[in-house]
Amino acid sequence: MLWPMLALALAFCGIAVLAVLSVRVYAEVRRLARQVSASSERITRAAEDLERASAPLGSTVDALRRQ
Q1: Per-residue pLDDT, 55
Q2: How far is Cα 38 from Cα 11, in angstroms, rounded to an integer?
Q3: Euclidean distance between CA atoms 61 and 67, whole angstroms
Q4: What is the CA radius of gyration of the chain?
Q5: CA-CA distance, 48 to 40, in Å (whole number)?
Q6: Distance (Å, rounded) from C-alpha 58 to C-alpha 20?
């Protein structure tokens, strides 16, 4: 009777460890998703800034080509 109880206790401990690790993985995935979202927003803002900055340059180049 001792060995089946020991096996059951070890199985429960193993499942508990897996549950704790899965919660940690879930938390890290959520944190990574937030970071990816923030990075995506920063990249979008930088692209918009670059587009706004290049508009006057484009008109200047266009004016030079017409001369």
Answers
A1: 79
A2: 41
A3: 10
A4: 29
A5: 12
A6: 56
Amino acid at residue number 34: R
**Confidence at residue 57, expressed as pLDDT on a 0 to 100 scale:** 76
The 3-state DSSP class for residue 1 equals coil
Overall pTM > 0.85: no
Residue type, 44: T
Give residue-wise pLDDT tens across range 36-65: 999 999 999 999 999 888 877 767 766 767
pLDDT averaged over every residue in the chain: 91
**Geometric angle at alpha carbon 22, from 17 and 25, rounded to 5°:** 130
Q: What's the CA gap between 34 and 29, in Å, rounded? A: 9
Tokens at residue 29, please? Answer: 């995935």
Task: State in Å, rounded, how far the first CA of the chain is from the last one.
Answer: 98
